[in-house]
């Protein structure tokens, strides 16, 4: 294949609308994932192992992060649409001030379908190799990382729903 043809293909891919591509780049091979403890809205200590058996969309965010704040309603809508025994959106806040800023943010923005989770220190970011916010990790039913996105996305878009639904449906095959 000629260099010009390869370049044309790359440019065509880059020119396609972002909404037409799956929001999370999938890994070729699932990756093991570390998890440090975090706390839910009731003060219970949890790890990602507590969610095994469900597909999880782990979103690491903070109330002070503008792109995080912008995408939270789309995560809320995704949880309302797909959430249940097979799927869970896990919005893990790294706010050091505790759960109250997160509760206040949920009230102010009308978040109704997402549970509260907080990592009180940087261990979660280090364990998950997060370098920027928001970072979202798609996790399969046995706790392996299937894909990762650094930056915001429209999580209730048809492309996101299709990508996540395909992973949910893998168990049924």
Would you spell out the secondary-structure blueprint of this structure?
Blueprint: H1 3-15, E1 26-31, E2 38-40, E3 45-46, E4 55-61, H2 66-82, E5 87-93, H3 99-109, E6 117-118, H4 123-127, E7 135-139, E8 145-150, H5 158-169
Parallel strand pairs: 4-5, 5-6
Antiparallel strand pairs: 1-8, 2-3, 2-6, 4-7, 7-8
Structural summary, described in words:
With 173 residues, the protein is of the alpha+beta class. Helix content is 34%, strand content 22%. The chain has five helices and eight strands, in the order αββββαβαβαββα. An eight-stranded mixed β-sheet has the order 1-8-7-4-5-6-2-3, with helices on one face. Strand 7 and strand 8 (145-150) form a beta hairpin. Mean pLDDT is 87; it is low at 1-20.
What's the N-to-C terminus distance? Answer: 37 Å
Q: Rounded to an integer, what's the Rg over CA atoms? A: 17 Å
**How are strands sequenced across the largest beta sheet?**
1-8-7-4-5-6-2-3
Q: Structural class of the secondary elements? A: alpha+beta
Helix content: 25-40%
Keywords: Cytochrome c-type biogenesis, Redox-active center, Signal
Main location: other
Subcellular location: Cell envelope
Organism: Paracoccus albicereus
What does this entry show, briefly?
Residues 1-20 form the signal peptide. By secondary structure, the chain is an alpha+beta fold. It contains five helices and eight strands; from the N terminus they run H-E-E-E-E-H-E-H-E-H-E-E-H.
